[in-house]
Specification:
This protein is α/β, with parallel strands linked by helices and 307 residues long. The protein has 8 helices and 14 strands. The structure holds zinc ion (ZN). Zinc ion binds next to loops.
């Protein structure tokens, strides 16, 4: 990556190291600035990324939108209402997932990008010792006030001692992080040898992504820097000595993302149209989870031969 002060330019594929980078799509930042960003694709491994994205120091303003529901708690509008209902159901399923892959043991759980803390709180109720890392001051304060859980700022990740975490979760977070490879390397270090890493990501091979193309809301430029599909994510995971042991579809995202994508296109009655189309993509993905709107990857460390 060649860095100018404000923009991060990527000339080597962060997943496979290829230099054959090709243009893929141009997408608009529909949430805040209406600026256009290019997405490039690696023809070798299929990985895609937002080209010339704002650096960590500059990206703050692109998050300053009240519509960014992941960090808000308002109930205005049909999309928000559905989002909050879906969050409740999703929390239950996330907790179940952790329990099942951690073989029903309890221990130390780290949630990176813990947002407003709902997942941390759910796991704390289930007797996990939880730690949250969250970049936003406001979200950390919210978590403290609502759940009495202290969260740490981003730098804390690098202070965590080696092999101390039983479970590390990143729910729709990795696609936001500038230092993709170094974060994964570090996670490999702090996870216990028999620990579980759970990463949820939008799926650019999904039916909804194929349909909406540059309007697909989960490209979400420039907040989403990296755009994964199951095959390129597995490639990246392997590079960091992780094995993808399971993949779980996140069915609700097809509805939410389709509704937002219709809004991006400026469709009349976009929410309704998106809801119906989301339903179709949801039904199609039931038979083919690899094409579901979002996927949760369950990872374990690869067998360590020596050490
Ligand atoms: Zn590549």
């Amino acid at each position: 990556m060649e860095n100018t002060p404000n923009k991060i330019h990527t000339s080597i594929c962060p997943v496979c190291g290829s230099k054959e980078i090709a243009p893929f799509l141009s997408c608009k930042d529909n949430l805040t600035t209406q600026e256009v960003f290019d997405i490039c694709k690696c023809p070798v491994c299929g990985f895609a990324f937002t080209q010339d994205f704002p650096s960590e120091k500059e990206i703050g303003k692109y998050y300053e939108a009240t519509a960014y529901v992941s960090h808000s708690d308002t109930h205005k509008g049909i999309i928000n209402t559905l989002y909050h209902w879906a969050r409740k159901v999703a929390l239950k399923s996330k907790a179940k997932m952790v329990a099942s892959y951690a073989d029903n043991r309890k221990g130390m759980l780290l949630d990176i990008g813990s947002g407003t803390g709902y997942f941390l709180n759910k796991m704390k109720e289930q007797k996990w010792i939880v730690t949250g890392i969250e970049k936003s001051d406001a979200a950390r304060q919210y978590t403290k006030q609502k759940f009495d859980i202290d969260c740490q700022p981003s730098e804390y990740l690098y202070e965590i001692p080696c092999k101390t975490k039983d479970v590390i979760t990143m729910w729709h977070v990795l696609e936001h992080l500038e230092h993709l490879n170094s974060v994964l390397d570090h996670i490999q270090g702090i996870l216990k040898n028999d620990g579980t890493l759970i990463i949820a990501l939008p799926n650019k091979d999904s039916y909804d992504a194929a349909h909406y193309k540059e309007y697909w809301a989960a490209y979400d430029v420039p907040r989403h820097l990296w755009h994964f599909s199951p095959s390129d994510f597995e490639h990246l995971a392997n590079r960091h000595q992780f094995e993808v042991v399971d993949t779980k579809p996140m069915y609700f995202d097809a509805f939410y993302i389709s509704m937002l994508s219709e809004q991006n296109k400026g469709t009349t009655l976009g929410s309704l149209v998106g809801l119906i189309k989301g339903g179709i993509y949801f039904l199609k993905s039931l038979g083919n989870k690899e094409r579901c709107s979002s996927l949760t990857y369950i990872l374990k460390k690869k067998e360590i031969k020596q050490k």
